[in-house]
Amino acid sequence: MSQNAITALRMLLVLCVGSNIAFAERANGFAPDKMETILYGVAYYPEYMPSDRLDRDVELMEKAGITVVRVGESTWSSWEPRDGEFQFDWMERVLDRLHKADCAETVSGSHPCRVISVRYKL
């Protein structure tokens, strides 16, 4: 397996598994039968929004009572703008802002899973 494939698989593991572990930890040992509140969430696509709008968007989410935000599923080209070159800064900024607002997030890996499996014939 090529180094690019290994790097892509490692990133995919972080995206698909790591965020779910972080969410579970933030939810304080979430168990459906012990839920004291309903999770209220949105899908957010920061890659389609002007970067200076992030604070306003998160403020609106807070005002609406959003507790969970799904991000990162839309454009693989934002994660890997050139073959083998991965960019995470744009998403770190979003996740940091969501954490500041005390919103849990989940990073979706559905589209990247397809791109990686086709590209590397997995």
Describe the structure concisely for a colleague.
The protein has 122 residues and is mainly α. It has 5 helices and 3 strands, in the order αβαβααβα.
Major sheet, described briefly? 3 strands, parallel
Which stretches are poorly predicted, pLDDT < 50 over at least 5 residues? 17-25
- Widest sheet: strand order? 1-2-3
Radius of gyration: 16 Å
User: What structural class results from the helix and strand content?
Assistant: mainly alpha
Our estimate of the beta-strand percent is: 5-15%
| Span between termini | 10 Å
Please, could you describe this protein's structure?
It is a single chain. This protein has 122 residues and is mainly α. The protein has one domain. The chain has helices spanning 3-26, 54-64, 76-79, 89-100, 110-119; strands at residues 41-43, 68-71, 104-107. Strands 1-2-3 form a 3-stranded parallel sheet. The chain starts with a helix and ends with a helix.
Q: What's the helix and strand layout?
A:
Elements: H1 3-26, E1 41-43, H2 54-64, E2 68-71, H3 76-79, H4 89-100, E3 104-107, H5 110-119
Parallel strand pairs: 1-2, 2-3
List keywords for this structure.
globular, mainly alpha, three-stranded parallel beta sheet, 122 residues
